[in-house]
Each structure stands twice: as C-alpha cells, then as structure tokens.
From TrEMBL:
One Pfam family per UniProt: RabGAP-TBC
Name this polypeptide is given: TBC1 domain family member 5
Signal sequence region: none
SUPFAM superfamilies in the record: Ypt/Rab-GAP domain of gyp1p
Gene3D superfamilies: putative rabgap domain of human tbc1 domain family member 14 like domains (1.10.8.270)
Species this protein is from: Sipha flava
SMART domains referenced in this protein's UniProt entry, alphabetically: TBC
A GO cellular component entry from the record: cytoplasm
GO MF, any single term: GTPase activator activity
Superkingdom of the organism of origin: Eukaryota
Residues that span the membrane, as ranges: 21-42
Domain Rab-GAP TBC per the UniProt entry, residue ranges: 99-266
Length: 266
C-alpha cells in the first residue's frame, strides 16, 4: 500500500509536467516509483497519526461507546487531512506511509494529482462535473449501429465516417483491453468479478477513444487497478460508518464517496 501511495505522488509529479495528463512513458514512471520506494525505506517511517485514530477507537469501543467513537474518529480523520493548507504537507504524509490506514485515501490521491482544488467547498461541484463528463463520454463512444438507423451505411462499408467501421474498430480495441484486464491481480478477488472487469474495460476504452494519439497501451490496467481498488475501499469504509450512524456523517462525505459513482470517480 505504501508503494501505491508513493506511485500516486510520482504520477502527480509526471502529470503536472504534461499537458495531456497521461502521456508519459510507463518505464519512466516505474523508474520514478522504484526510486521513491528506495528513498522511502532508507528514511525513518514516523508513526501514523491516522492509525492512532483507529487504535484509539478499538480501545474506546470496548467501553460500550464504540459506535459513536467510530463516527467521531471518521470525521476527525477528515478534518485532520483536509484542514491542511499546504499540499506539500499532505504529500509528505503520503510518502511517510501515513495514508495506509486512511479511510479517505482516494480523496488524498485526487488532491495530489491536482484533480481537486485546494478549496474543499469546491470539491463537490468539481466531482459532479467529472461525473457528468464521463457519462457524456460514454454516450459518445458507445455507439451500437444495431440500434441505430444507419441509412445507406452498412457493415461492409470502408468509408472513414462509417458507423460500422468504427464499431468494429471499437470491438477490437475492447478485446485487447479485456485480455489485460482479466489478468489483473489474479490473487485479488475484487478484480475477478465481472462487474469490476467491465468497469475497467469501459474506463480504459473511453480513455483510449478520448486520446487516440496514445490509445491503449499494455500496462495501463495496472495503473487503473490500485486507483479503483482504493476508491472501493473508501466506499466500504463509508458504508460501514453509515451502518452505525447515518445522520452523524456529513452530506459532503456521503456525496463525494457515493459508491454508485465508482466507475465515474475512478
């Protein structure tokens, strides 16, 4: 998990240098991650304040007030992480491995990647725009000529503007992506489910269609995988807290970590 935290920091650094946001060499990225990984183990790892939050919870829950303590600690971690004014301080927390036990790791990553503004009051608006943009992107690129009136167009057309020609190209692209996706982390059950595999294929396909100059490259699924998994874990943490006390969790957290938007938010 510490490696993935460092990876997110390095991705953010690469993204900030490239106007396309993702057009960088996979080998360069891996080299940067490995270098940071070595630095990480050479430096002393400070005790995790976030881990201490939940260690305290375990101690207090035995007294009979576990449910209230759990929600309070959940909110306390939110305030601890997102009342930080300096993004470099949050990055330092990540590099030290203190996000390993965080229930808001996916949000921290989005901040480090520059996907969220520093002002938390703008987060929901920003995230809703991303969600809307993704849904529109899917509508644009998921065209099935079987359900449309293609007029004189037909499956044998060689015209560059042919809906059918693009459809067959898309099917071939999805097959290539699917071959990689089904091999993602074979030992992790999360990636064995048909639902998650479809989400990964859809995300990578849409990205490829939006960036034809780069398209899909082998290994992109390995970058998507930890982002998707960490987001899912944050969703599960929220659902666990909501089971104890839905009314005590802020609406902002509920909306930002809405599990229904796993695909769009990844």
């Amino acid at each position: 998990q510490a490696v993935m935290t460092i990876a997110s920091s390095e991705i953010a650094r690469c993204v900030s240098k490239d106007k396309h946001g993702f057009v960088f060499g996979i080998n360069n990225l891996l080299a940067a991650v490995l270098q940071s990984f070595a630095t990480f183990f050479m430096s002393s790892l400070s005790s995790s304040k976030i881990l201490m939050f939940y260690t305290d919870f375990e101690d207090n829950s035995s007294s009979g007030n576990g449910q209230n303590v759990s929600v309070k600690l959940y909110e306390s971690e939110w305030k601890y992480l997102f009342n930080i004014d300096d993004i470099d301080e949050l990055r330092d927390i990540a590099i030290k491995g203190e996000l390993r036990t965080s229930r808001f790791r996916s949000i921290c990553w989005r901040l480090l990647l520059g996907l969220l503004p520093s002002d938390s009051s703008e987060w929901l608006i920003t995230i809703e725009k991303f969600r809307s943009t993704y849904e529109q992107t899917k509508l644009i690129h998921y065209n099935d000529p079987h359900t449309q009136d293609s007029g004189p167009d037909n499956p044998l057309s060689l015209d560059d503007d042919s809906i059918w020609k693009q459809y067959f190209k898309d099917m071939e692209l999805k097959k290539i992506i699917q071959q990689d996706v089904i091999r993602t982390s074979p030992g992790v059950e999360f990636f064995r489910t048909e639902k998650i595999q479809k989400i990964m294929v859809d995300l990578l396909f849409c990205y490829s269609r939006e960036h034809p100059d780069l398209s899909y490259r082998q290994g992109m699924h390995e970058i998507l995988a930890p982002l998707l998994f960490v987001l899912h874990c944050d969703h599960q943490a929220l659902l666990h807290v909501l089971e104890q006390s839905s009314s005590d969790v802020s609406d902002l957290i509920k909306k930002i970590l809405e599990p229904a938007y796993l695909e769009a938010d990844a």
